[in-house]
Design goal:
There is one protein chain. This protein has one domain. Helix content is 50%, strand content 0%. It has 4 helices and no strands.
Length: 94
């Protein structure tokens, strides 16, 4: 199934892949790195398939997009304070 090309999809592709490159260069804050790893742990089948089961976008780039395509599975990327509170509420260890 081909994804429909929309401005939203193109924007998400650019955002995700740009942030993935920055992460590879060590330029992502620690709280963002943790959230990417958290998303990856929830989306192992997407990683295996190379695309998101929900939206069809390429993975791992999709893991770096701030807006969640599947809020029932994981939230939007959060700032450091929000992430720390989320970890406490959901009993996630550092």
């Amino acid at each position: 199934m081909l994804k429909k090309v929309t401005l939203k999809n193109v924007s998400a592709f650019i955002e995700g892949n740009t942030k993935q490159v920055l992460a590879g260069m060590g330029l992502q804050p620690e709280h963002v790195k943790e959230q990417i790893l958290y998303r990856a742990s929830l989306c192992s089948s997407c990683i295996t398939a190379g695309k998101c089961e929900k939206c069809g976008c390429s993975v791992p780039g999709k893991l770096y997009v701030a807006k969640s395509c599947n809020p029932d599975k994981f939230p939007d990327l959060m700032n450091n304070t929000e992430w720390e509170e989320f970890k406490k509420r959901n009993l996630l260890n550092d």
